[in-house]
């Protein structure tokens, strides 16, 4: 358990530095640290009812603006918490029967000090910012955020204990901005249909305002938000004075039409290589009452979402892809409780996709890799008593593969997934002191001869009245019933459970936590959730110390530490033990951020890599290793900015076999160049090299080998070198705050070369194997996504998308270690091309009724 000399020296130097800095810092900031754990007093602002029409132009020249009370004297939250703003911000709030109006004046020193990069919606860029936060049920847990930049770029978000800050949520509202002299102004109109609130005659809402002054990299809040206090919504002030307003009928329809032209040169013989399609459907939003909203998508079309970042997966676990479909990213915070919902399961690869086999004299013609989604519906909301209720349901169609007889041309279909129903039900009760209790149930029902799945979980978090200490936990039960799809055998993992409990200090400069988790050997939430391996007992203790106030030459500093241990649940056996330390800081003048992550992992028994069942008998011995990653990020205000990271994994010598030492190196570079306020180039490079890695070899036995091979009936492992390079180039040109063009190109290549092989016996014993089949291969993935988007009216959009992609499987087993040879081969192989046009048009019932009236 010895560290490399360079790491020992680095830790020694850091220890000396901490010994010099922390005692003095602790003395100088002790009173501040003690006060920082208590939330600031709540400010109040009175809204003014109006009857006159407000012209939304960003000028604030109506008389009523000058008659409303002013929210001012903002307080800095970063980089120097607690400091009053020098350049004043003045905000006023008006309302009528239909809308909330916000007028803000941001004073500055010169027009050049107001940074205003033009970006797409929900992106800030290098820009100043103003936003309003609303907690319309005053539960201090859930809220809305509406913001605008000097360039008129809008963004919105929702806050919840489960989802944190969710920028995928979008509402239909409007804003205008102007720059006049040394100041800039924002005028916002938020329809009541964009938010939810109770029917009470007099409303009491949580309220806060924020201003970002990018020139100083500073953020200010009207009601002070202290970084050492746990929570965000609970640190807002109050908005009073809104009376006699009724939650409106929230009913909107967003129909769409889309058209695709697709050219696939790899289409099966006898099928058209160029195809066209025309689609239509709609999204419906209906406010059932003042608290709950129904969202439904009928015959959805997700063909324009960004391509997945495909990778070569050598691990025993599946790859988790990001969710890019808006319906499944917007307003799903309730369904994310307990991490039991992985939305990519809905419309995922059919469960029988990989089992399709063409018979003798047949050819596989079609085998769709995505399940056709017929509809999806979600109902969510929160009552005035703080009870959140969420219901989700989706239905996918029967899916079939098609094979064709080579001689007769007759085709037959093979079922790959039956008609399936996915549902989620959530109850989430908000409690005092930023606490909650929740109950969630997920269910997958498949029609036909297969299995169904159900998962039920209970969650809780209780904070003390000072919001300083917390205890949380969960208990989850999973249940499967039926037979394996396409087979007569019963599913093996029928009943399982998971429980977790944690205790910790959550506020202040010093925080800590203890947690303990058990996942049984049959626990499986993966039909609608995602879990990377069960059958585990784990416990960990962590501690963190954060300095929020600038000192010496830095703005802030944070230290993290954790120790954790894991056991196999059944049978109870040792798995792993690790120690972790992390550090980061930001310098005062340059805003250069640096940091590192350092961990030491004792000898590990990997029970998952052999891919045998049941677990416990076979495992791969992993030598002790040290993992070190250092990173730095430059000042993003500059035209040219960058991020860099470099890492090394240093393994102990494997004394059991005469095998070279394992090592892994990694490097990442992420430069960005902003030509002007409209055009930006970005590039990312991720490179890694693993030497003498030991892993599972594609199913072990080769059936073509003689049956008397010594590894017959045993798991086959290989010693390999793995080199991976991922390059992403993106260009964004934003014409206006409602029109943009983006181009993203990604090339990923991974080379695997094997040197020798061993058979794995029970107890982790390895024996050299005379295995001569070549397993070396190269995997390439290449994608181009070009998107033109124009928001021609609130909630309405025209988008034109070009997608280009190669087939990663076409070069399987063709080992090509030279990067530029890989790139050339990938570009010159046949690619699938798709061009699509999609039109969305937002129809609001209230606007329609107003025009009719």
Number of strands: 47
Report the total helices: 5
Backbone CA Rg: 29 Å
Largest sheet: 24 strands, antiparallel, barrel
Helix content: under 10%
Low-pLDDT residue intervals, each spanning 5 or more residues? 1-36, 700-712
Q: N-to-C terminal Cα separation, in Å?
A: 79 Å
Estimated share of beta-strand residues: over 45%
Structural class: mainly beta
Shape, principal axes of CA atoms: globular
Average the pLDDT over all residues and give the rounded result.
88
Signal peptide: 1-26
Domain Carbohydrate-binding: 56-213
Organism: Hymenobacter nitidus
Protein name: Carbohydrate binding family 9 domain-containing protein
Describe, in plain words, how this protein is organized in 3D.
- The protein is mainly beta.
- Among the domains are: 42-240, Immunoglobulin-like, CATH 2.60.40; 318-524, no CATH class.
- It is built from 5 helices and 47 strands.
- The strands form 5 sheets. It has a 24-stranded antiparallel barrel.
- The chain is globular.
- It starts with a helix and ends with a helix.
- Residues 1-36 and 700-712 have low confidence and may be disordered.
In short:
The chain has 853 residues and is mainly beta.
Properties at a glance:
853 residues; mainly beta; Immunoglobulin-like; 24-stranded antiparallel beta barrel; nine-stranded mixed β-sheet; 7% helix; 49% strand; globular; disordered N terminus
Q: Topology of this structure?
A:
Layout: H1 5-36, E1 44-46, E2 48-49, H2 63-67, E3 75-78, E4 89-95, E5 99-106, E6 129-135, E7 143-148, E8 154-160, E9 164-166, E10 174-180, E11 183-191, E12 205-213, E13 218-221, E14 237-240, E15 251-263, E16 274-287, E17 292-298, H3 326-329, E18 362-366, E19 373-382, E20 387-396, E21 399-405, E22 411-417, E23 420-431, E24 435-446, E25 451-463, E26 469-482, E27 495-505, E28 510-519, E29 536-547, E30 554-568, E31 573-587, E32 593-601, E33 604-606, E34 620-622, E35 625-633, E36 640-641, E37 643-651, E38 663-669, E39 672-674, E40 679-696, E41 715-736, E42 739-761, E43 765-769, E44 777-793, E45 796-806, H4 819-828, E46 831-840, E47 843-844, H5 845-852
Parallel strand pairs: 1-14, 2-4
Antiparallel strand pairs: 3-13, 4-5, 5-11, 6-7, 6-12, 7-8, 8-9, 10-11, 12-13, 12-14, 15-16, 15-46, 15-47, 16-17, 17-19, 18-21, 19-20, 20-23, 21-22, 23-24, 24-25, 25-26, 26-27, 27-28, 28-29, 29-30, 30-31, 31-32, 32-35, 33-34, 35-37, 36-39, 37-38, 38-40, 39-40, 40-41, 41-42, 42-43, 42-44, 44-45, ...
């Amino acid at each position: 358990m010895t560290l490399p000399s360079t790491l020992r020296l680095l830790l020694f130097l850091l220890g000396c530095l901490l010994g010099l800095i922390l005692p003095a810092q602790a003395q100088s900031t002790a009173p501040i640290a003690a006060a920082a754990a208590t939330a600031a007093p709540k400010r109040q602002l009175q809204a003014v009812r109006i009857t006159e029409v407000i012209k939304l132009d960003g000028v604030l020249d109506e008389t009523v603006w000058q008659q409303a009370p002013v929210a001012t004297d903002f307080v800095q939250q970063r980089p120097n918490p607690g400091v009053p703003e020098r350049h004043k911000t003045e905000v006023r709030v008006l309302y009528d029967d239909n809308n909330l109006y916000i007028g803000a004046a941001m004073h500055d020193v010169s027009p050049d000090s107001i940074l205003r990069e033009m970006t797409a919606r929900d992106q800030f860029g290098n820009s100043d910012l103003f936003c309003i936060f609303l907690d319309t049920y005053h539960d201090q847990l859930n809220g809305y955020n509406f913001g605008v930049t000097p360039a008129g770029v809008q963004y919105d978000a929702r806050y919840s204990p489960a989802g944190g800050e969710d920028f995928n949520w979008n509402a239909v509202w409007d804003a205008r901005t102007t720059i006049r002299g040394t100041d800039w102004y924002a005028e916002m109109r938020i329809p009541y249909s964009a938010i939810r609130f109770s029917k009470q005659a007099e409303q009491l809402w949580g309220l806060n305002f924020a201003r970002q002054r990018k020139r100083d990299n500073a953020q200010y809040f009207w009601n002070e938000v202290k970084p050492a206090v746990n929570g965000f919504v609970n640190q807002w002030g109050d908005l009073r004075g809104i009376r006699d307003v009724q939650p409106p009928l929230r009913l909107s329809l967003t129909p769409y039409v889309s058209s695709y032209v697709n050219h696939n040169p790899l289409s099966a013989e006898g099928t058209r290589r160029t195809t066209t399609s025309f689609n239509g459907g709609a999204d419906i939003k209906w406010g059932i009452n003042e608290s709950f909203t129904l969202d439904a998508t009928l015959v959805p079309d997700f063909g324009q979402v960004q391509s997945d970042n495909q990778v070569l997966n050598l691990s025993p676990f599946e790859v988790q892809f990001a969710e890019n479909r808006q319906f499944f990213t917007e307003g799903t915070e309730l369904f994310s409780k307990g991490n039991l919902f992985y939305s990519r399961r809905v419309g995922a690869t059919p469960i029988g996709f990989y089992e399709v086999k063409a018979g003798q004299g047949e050819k596989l013609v079609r085998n769709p890799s995505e399940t056709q989604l017929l509809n999806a519906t979600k109902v969510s909301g929160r009552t005035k008593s703080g009870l959140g209720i969420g219901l989700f349901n989706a239905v996918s169609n029967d899916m079939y593969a098609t094979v064709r007889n080579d001689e007769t041309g007759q085709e037959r279909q093979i079922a790959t997934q039956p008609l399936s129903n996915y549902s989620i039900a959530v109850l989430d009760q908000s409690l005092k002191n930023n606490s909650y209790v929740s109950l969630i149930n997920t269910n997958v029902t498949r029609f036909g001869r297969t299995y169904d799945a159900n998962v039920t979980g209970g969650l809780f978090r209780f904070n003390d009245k000072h919001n300083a200490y917390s205890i949380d936990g969960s208990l989850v039960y999973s249940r499967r019933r039926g037979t394996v799809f396409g087979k007569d055998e019963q599913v093996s993992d029928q009943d399982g459970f998971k429980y977790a409990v944690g205790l910790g200090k959550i506020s202040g400069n010093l925080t800590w936590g203890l947690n303990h988790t058990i996942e049984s050997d049959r626990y499986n939430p993966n039909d609608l959730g995602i879990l990377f391996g069960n059958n585990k007992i784990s416990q960990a203790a962590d501690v963190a110390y954060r300095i929020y106030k600038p000192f010496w030459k830095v703005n802030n500093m944070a230290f993290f530490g954790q120790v954790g241990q894991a056991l196999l649940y059944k049978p109870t056996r040792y798995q792993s033990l690790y120690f972790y330390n992390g550090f980061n800081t930001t310098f005062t003048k340059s805003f250069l951020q640096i940091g590192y992550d350092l961990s030491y992992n004792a000898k590990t028994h990997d029970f998952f890599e052999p891919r045998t069942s049941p677990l416990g008998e076979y495992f791969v011995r992993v030598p002790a290793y040290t993992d070190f990653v250092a990173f730095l990020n430059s000042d993003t205000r500059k035209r040219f900015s960058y991020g860099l990271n470099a890492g090394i994994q240093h393994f102990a010598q494997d004394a059991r076999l005469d095998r070279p030492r394992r090592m892994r190196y990694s490097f990442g570079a992420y430069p960005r160049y902003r030509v002007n306020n409209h055009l930006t180039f970005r590039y990312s490079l991720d490179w890694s090299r693993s030497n003498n890695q030991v892993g599972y070899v594609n199913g072990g036995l080769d059936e073509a080998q003689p049956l008397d091979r010594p590894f017959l009936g045993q798991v086959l492992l290989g010693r390999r070198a793995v080199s991976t390079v991922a390059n992403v180039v993106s260009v964004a040109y934003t014409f206006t705050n409602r029109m943009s063009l983006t181009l993203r190109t990604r090339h990923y290549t991974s080379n695997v070369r094997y040197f020798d092989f061993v058979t794995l016996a029970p107890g982790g014993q390895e024996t050299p194997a005379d295995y001569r089949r070549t397993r070396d291969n190269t995997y390439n993935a290449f994608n181009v996504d070009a998107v033109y988007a124009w928001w021609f009216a609130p909630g309405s959009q025209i988008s034109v998308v070009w997608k280009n992609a190669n087939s990663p499987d076409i070069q399987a087993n063709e080992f090509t270690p030279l990067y530029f040879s890989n790139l050339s081969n990938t570009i010159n192989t046949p690619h699938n091309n798709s061009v699509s046009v999609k039109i969305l048009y937002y129809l609001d019932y209230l606007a329609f009724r107003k025009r009719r009236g």
